[in-house]
Write a structure and sequence with these properties.
single chain; mainly alpha; AhpD-like; 5 helices; about 80% helix; globular
Length: about 110
């Protein structure tokens, strides 16, 4: 049975310390430095960057990434309509696989909407 987006996030968060123990420099550089530095407001807002990241996650066919970035889109103030439009752009660029992975976005929105 497929995991729910919330279950995937919980699994990711549970396993991150194990990864940090094995490869602390890589894990910390990515999670504590690269991700926050890239996603902070700049010329593009955090919300715009999260919508872009979600589109890339869809095209990369990464369920974990989709779950994380749907959550982060909502935290950045994105609406369901903005997230749906980001899906449309991902489908334009990623075709059929992006279409199928976009259905997971809608499941994640149902679970994580504020």
């Amino acid at each position: 049975m497929p995991k729910s987006p919330k279950e995937m996030l919980a699994e990711f968060q549970a396993n991150l310390p194990k990864m940090r123990e094995a490869i602390p420099q890589v894990t910390d550089d990515f999670v504590k430095k690269l991700m926050p530095d890239v996603l902070k407001d700049g010329v593009l807002t955090t919300k715009q960057k999260e919508l872009i990241a979600l589109g890339i996650a869809i095209c990369a066919t990464c369920d974990y990434c989709i779950a994380i970035h749907v959550k982060k889109c909502f935290e950045a103030g994105a609406t369901k309509e903005e997230i749906a439009e980001a899906c449309a752009v991902a489908i334009l660029m990623g075709g059929g696989p992006a279409l199928t992975y976009s259905t997971f976005v809608f499941k994640a929105m149902e679970e994580m909407a504020p």
